[in-house]
Amino acid sequence: MIRILLDTNVILDVALKRKPHFETSSKIFSYIDDIRLKGHVTATTLTEIYYIFKKVKGNKLAIEFLSNLIEMVAVIGVDKSTVLDALHSNIIDFEDAIQVSAAKQSGLRVIVTRNKSDFKNASLEVYSPAELLNLLAD
């Protein structure tokens, strides 16, 4: 089973049924549900998702979505060492740097995102949802 870190955009594609990305991103969650993948998110990703989802769908649905999400995926922590590592990384966007640092500290090697260029300096494997699905189909 491949352990993956889910970027915020992949989760929001599913949460908000964003087209044209919903179908591919939702297949990633099907693989998690079928235990072919083990999904992970950072604690900071949850706050980002809550903030964005709440603006679109309201507090009640945001809480409901997050409650369901954390039943499916593991939540990895962000602590002082994660932040320090992110501050000194080669990744320009701080939020992305936090995700990479947290992933590495949790022994993850794969990030799934629609914005691969955001992670070009990550020392991890970076796949779009479609690329990961193609890899799993082989």
Secondary structure: elements and pairs:
Elements: E1 2-6, H1 8-15, H2 22-33, E2 37-42, H3 43-57, H4 59-72, E3 74-76, H5 80-87, H6 94-105, E4 110-112, E5 125-127, H7 129-137
Parallel strand pairs: 1-2, 1-4, 2-3, 4-5
Describe it.
- This protein has a single domain, classed as 5'-nuclease (Rossmann fold, 3-Layer(aba) Sandwich), CATH 3.40.50.
- The protein has a 5-stranded parallel beta sheet with strand order 3-2-1-4-5.
- The protein is globular.
- By secondary structure, the chain is α/β, with parallel strands linked by helices.
- It has helices at residues 8-15, 22-33, 43-57, 59-72, 80-87, 94-105, 129-137, and strands at 2-6, 37-42, 74-76, 110-112, 125-127.
- Helix 2 (22-33) packs across helix 7 (129-137) and helix 5 (80-87) crosses helix 6.
- The protein contains 7 helices and 5 strands, in the order E-H-H-E-H-H-E-H-H-E-E-H.
Main sheet overview: 5 strands, parallel
Say how many strands there are.
Answer: 5
Low-confidence stretches: none
Order of strands in the sheet with most strands: 3-2-1-4-5
Number of helices: 7
Tell me, what's the shape?
globular
Domain module count: 1
> Helicity range of the residues?
55-70%
CATH class: Alpha Beta
Radius of gyration based on Cα positions: 14 Å
In CATH terms, the superfamily is 5'-nuclease
Write a concise keyword list for the protein shown above.
5 strands, Rossmann fold, five-stranded parallel beta sheet, alpha/beta, 138 residues
Short description:
The mean pLDDT is 95. The longest helix is centred in the middle third of the chain and has 15 residues, at 43-57.
